[in-house]
Specification:
- This protein is mostly helical and 295 residues long.
- Helices cover 53% and strands 1% of the residues.
- The chain contains 15 helices and two strands.
- Strands 1-2 form a two-stranded parallel ribbon.
- It is elongated, with a radius of gyration of 43 Å.
């Protein structure tokens, strides 16, 4: 017991030392509690340099954003896809109008015609039309068209020289007397007329590849269908696949569907039955049946 007590027995100087140590610890704790030893205010940054560096950083960010913007390169507007149209700023309806025009196997051959088909706003037209790039032959045709569309006395006089006002009997030369029709276009019209075995509807003229609506309207002001053509019809029940496919308004897929339907019903009693085919292009029915019969 005496040994244990001796371990807890301090002299007066030891007790004073312990009290001093405790006082020092408490004092330091209070000092750190009430005094902020942070470095706030100890370093004063150079505001001019900071502003300069911030300006440089902002400039670099701006350049980076500019680089990420969509860059427009010259392109043929006939082949605008949904994605490219969106990048150019076109609306969905405007893109759909262009795609519908192309699905008819029609092309736009000038910036003005592109706006007429898509109906884009003047502001967007002015922004993207400088980048339109048409094939050289189209540009040449546009230049010739501008020269041709200048109405002269000679041209007016030549209109009276046509041999027939019936579009199914007009010669290539007759067609060239119409404003906007050159010898190449007139031959193309005659060739398509032969493929159809003659025009049965005036609207068929608009199906000629590369023939602009304005020029087609000029032709129909001079020529009309005065006598319906005699078209040789084929019997869809007995015709071969190749014969049905020769119809100018029937493509391969539709021909397959027609023969598939014919196999199901064994024999078509009326040609109007082809409208029962799923997905049949009703808008082409009047033209398709010009070449088909069921009996």
């Amino acid at each position: 017991m005496k040994k244990l007590k001796s371990h807890f027995w301090y002299t007066k100087s030891q007790r004073n030392g312990i009290l001093f140590l405790l006082a020092s610890i408490i004092g330091l704790q209070l000092l750190f509690h009430f005094i902020n030893f942070g470095d706030n205010g100890l370093v004063t940054p150079n505001q001019a340099k900071m502003s300069f560096y911030q300006h440089q950083l902002d400039s670099l960010k701006k350049i980076s954003l500019e680089d990420k913007k969509y860059t427009i390169y010259p392109f043929n507007p006939n082949y605008i896809s949904d994605h490219k149209g969106y990048q150019l700023g076109m609306k969905t309806k405007e893109i759909d109008r262009l795609l519908a025009h192309r699905n008819k196997r029609l092309f736009v051959n000038s910036a003005k015609e592109f706006q007429e088909v898509t109906k884009i706003s003047d502001s967007l037209f002015q922004a993207i039309s400088p980048y339109f790039k048409f094939p050289e032959w189209v540009q040449k045709k546009n230049r010739e068209k501008e020269e041709r569309f200048t109405v002269t006395t000679k041209t007016k006089k030549n209109i009276s020289d046509i041999t027939s006002s019936d579009i199914n009997e007009a010669t290539p030369y007759d067609l060239t007397l119409v404003k906007g029709v050159d010898e190449y276009l007139s031959e193309r019209i005659i060739k398509y007329r032969s493929k159809l075995q003659g025009f049965s509807f005036s609207e068929q003229l608009f199906e000629v590849w590369g023939l602009e609506k304005e020029v087609a309207d000029n032709i129909l002001q001079v020529f009309s269908i005065q006598k319906k053509p005699k078209i040789t019809k084929i019997n869809v029940n007995t015709a071969s696949f190749k014969e049905v496919l020769s119809n100018p308004y029937i493509d391969y897929d539709l021909c397959v569907q027609i023969f598939g339907y014919k196999d199901e019903v064994a024999e078509l009693q009326s040609i109007s039955e082809i409208k029962n085919i799923e997905g049949f292009p009703i808008e082409k029915y009047d033209r398709i049946v010009l070449y088909l019969q069921a009996k």
